[in-house]
Amino acid sequence: MILRHVTIDCADPHQLASFWSEVTGWPLGDDDFPGDPEVLVVAPEPQPGMLFIRVPEGKQVKNRIHFDWMPTERSRDEEVERILALGATLHEDHRKPDGLGWVTLLDPESNEFCIERSAAERNI
Q: Counting Cβ atoms within 10 Å, is residue 66 exposed (0-12), middle (13-18) or buried (19+)?
């Protein structure tokens, strides 16, 4: 099987998909517009896209699954600052004085996600 999309329930699919499009640099689907009940962020192959679907209920509890992102063009700390400027909120800071650790952020609808150290910071 192939994982085609990761689907995220939300109140405003276009708004949340636009945030994630800015975070990832991936485009929205060509036929996705404000007010649509579902909006796709198109990932480069072979990665799965992110499909945002409107649901009537709001988020109630901590996510049971979340994204862990590893920056490719910036350091972890640069990426955290960039994403905060896009509208994310700091949730938990797990950075350590020795440079290890990660940062947990919340997207505009309070979904948790983490920013880890880049490959360069890991010496990979």
A: middle
Residues with Cβ within 8 Å of residue 83, at least 6 apart in sequence? 23, 105, 115
pLDDT band at residue 58 under the 50/70/90 scheme: confident
The Cα 67–Cα 99 span in angstroms is 21
CA–CA–CA angle 78, 81, 51 (5° rounding): 100
Residues with Cβ within 8 Å of 93's Cβ and at least 6 positions away in sequence, in order, are: 101, 103, 104
Predicted structure pTM score: 0.93
Residue 80 Cα to chain centre, angstroms = 11
Whether cis (ω within 30° of 0) applies to the bond prior to 46 is yes
Instruction: Please report how the helices 13-24 and 76-86 are oriented relative to each other, as an axis angle in degrees rounded to 10.
Output: 150
